[in-house]
Amino acid sequence: MLFKKLWRTIKIYKAQFISMIIMIAIGIGIFVGFNMEWVSIDKNTTYLFDKTNFADYRIVNENGFSSQEADLVKSLNGIDKVSRYLSVNAEITQYPEKTVALTVTENKDVSSFMVIKGEEYDETSLDGIWISDKFANKNKIKIGNELSFTYKSITVSGKVKGLVKSGEYMINVKDEAQLMPDYAKHGFAYVSPALYQASSPILYYPQLNIISSLSKKEFKEKVDNAFGKTCMILSKDEVGSYSSAQGEVQEGQTMGAILPVLFLLIAVLTMVTTMHRITVKEKTQIGTLKALGFKDKSILRHYSCYALIIGIIGSIIGIGLGYFIGWYIMNPKGSMGTYMDLPRWKLYMPWFVPVIIVLINVFLTFIGFLSVKKMLKGTPADALRPYTPKKMRKLVVEKTKLWNKFSFGTKWNLRDVFRHKARTAMSLLGIIGCMIILVASLGMKDTMNGFIKTYYNDAMNYSSHIFISEEATTEQRESIVNEYNGDWSSSIAIQMGEKTLSLDIYNVTHDKVRFPDKNNNFISLKDNGAYICMRIADNYHLKKGDEFKVSPYGQSVVYTLRVAGIMRSVSENIVITPEYASSIGITDYKIDSVYTDTAKTAIFSSSAIKNVQSKQDIIDSFDTFINLMNLMIVILMVGALILGVVVLYNLGIMSYTERYREMATLKVVGFKDKKIGSLLIGQNMWITLIGALIGLPLGIGVLDFMLKALASEYELKLTLGILTFSVSLILTFGMSLLVSLLVSRKNKKIDMVEALKGAE
């Protein structure tokens, strides 16, 4: 009998039943999807790094390493594997305007690659080329094709023996200024040491890749002692693909821990309120069951099952939705597929997600249990009596003369709002939650757009960035500066504590490069100190006027610098002028970049110029990066609006049934349907206004928290445009108005006689 009643109850409250399932499904779906995304990135990238034996440490020396120096490092205790390594950008004779990172590694067991198709790697091959499968597919390069790579005066030729993927090039950008890869224009290729030696008159390996379980401090001490100097050592989390992958994981964790949790919270709390109000309406039914002889345990189990069914169905749909969101983001043709080059794209469910889903269902069942338990107190006769709301005390405003000046509608709405405090609170919560998510999501987009404007539109006050070749003479470097009438910079790798940072010397007499402070106002570089980025200031607790020490790699000298200002930066760097560099004794540096108004197409090819990048190239690259974030923003916004509509509609339907007799009474005394509808809509609009006013600053606070959590990768300034506020308010009010109109339409169906039959 109770089983049949269960399905009858579901049918009676089908609107509430469906809406609660949708609420739980959306809450769980967003939570599952966003957390699956970062966990899947972590596991899939780790798989590639493990399969390709990604190096734990890198020792860099622009003069190169001999085989004896490699053997010296290999002989140290705690060093497992060592490989000399070379990677240079080379042009492809058969494919003009296409380039590859031409790579040679002496030991295939250190930072090598996975063969996806073709022959396994042969270190002794004199004609073998193993090339990126993604680059090959986009350019229709097949196994067996002849290719020739040119780097300066060196030409390496051979046949494509295999298509590969590599941990080193999981995110393959041409240079440090390019944020997003272009796999159609730039790929990577491995050739054997034998082919490299046959093609090049000089053996040159500027990097040692090392597998070691030692800590960085231990590793550095051993290497510095062996070489008798300070070596430039980079751990894997400081370089390339590994660092980028960890950054994506961290971003995903931040996103998955804030806004999706808010979705869950709103859904669960609304479910709690709805279950309570359903059991209140079922009071006479509960009394009838008790009078018929059903045990309290059976009745409790019956109503607990109602909540459990909602939780289970909602969870199943939510998990499916979460998998879809995860797949949409994490697939080779999806948003992450444009960024990462992975051998597999498996979706992983985080271990804590099933635990939380189970706990949610247990909690919902327990709420159903508690809601009914209150109704079972006393005798069956007590239970049979309809639920009587608590007598409402007079509002404070009712005791004033102001009350008499209010219209009937205002009085009715005020009493109704304070009579049903739980309903009002949940409506406010739904609106506040929706507003928070909209403001935080759109605000993130505003912030990133502000980031682009500050760093790439305003700070980059040039047309082209010229990268000067390492082999260029001092005369050639100065000639390029003069020929293109540009500003210049020089980067020196330095050690500060245990971190590897960049000390950048800038000569900006033409104002081609500018540096924003924390308020995005541009700093005028002075010759009395160094300008450090915000991350360095925070990590080392530095402020203006403080002194700190740095040591250039390969030198025993220690320089003491004074903080002249703190700036925002896209990288962890320190900026000084040539005059300040000279005053503290730094004179041994080379111009490596020139910033000019000359268009990229007007800059002539030269052996002294390694690469030229236009300002627009950089902006386009970042735009693609922004598109990845926009996808998550859209998912959050759509989810917020759907959840808001469902929450408010569910509460609206419940409120309508609770006020059924009141509205019937209003119709009896002469109120028209439109008037009654306007009363309800007016009440909801006022609640929406209050919720929006509360949600707006909370949304800003959530956004600020998210930006601080992302501060390890970006130095972002919270930016909110008028359009964000406007869109958030319009969408929130529009959502609320839509629900109000849908609910108010039911006034036409009120049967006044039937509604008032049971009136006492």
Task: Describe this structure as you would to a colleague.
The protein is α+β, with helices and mostly antiparallel strands and 760 residues long. It folds into 4 domains: 1-56 and 243-388, no CATH class; 62-230, no CATH class; 420-460 and 622-760, no CATH class; 461-621, no CATH class. Helix content is 51%, strand content 18%. The protein has a 6-stranded mixed β-barrel with strand order 2-3-8-5-7-6. It is elongated. The two termini are 31 Å apart. The model has no long low-confidence stretch (mean pLDDT 83).
List the helices and strands and how they pair.
Layout: H1 2-12, H2 14-51, E1 57-60, H3 67-74, E2 79-92, E3 95-105, E4 114-118, E5 128-132, H4 133-138, E6 146-151, E7 154-165, E8 186-191, H5 193-199, E9 207-212, H6 216-227, E10 232-235, H7 240-281, H8 283-291, H9 296-329, H10 352-375, H11 380-384, H12 402-405, H13 408-419, H14 421-458, E11 464-468, H15 474-483, E12 487-496, E13 499-507, E14 515-516, E15 522-523, E16 530-533, H16 534-539, E17 547-552, E18 559-567, E19 573-576, H17 578-583, E20 593-596, E21 609-614, H18 615-658, H19 660-668, H20 673-709, H21 722-744, H22 752-756
Parallel strand pairs: 3-8, 5-7, 13-19, 16-18
Antiparallel strand pairs: 1-9, 1-10, 2-3, 2-6, 2-9, 4-7, 5-8, 6-7, 11-20, 11-21, 12-13, 12-17, 12-20, 14-15, 16-19, 17-18
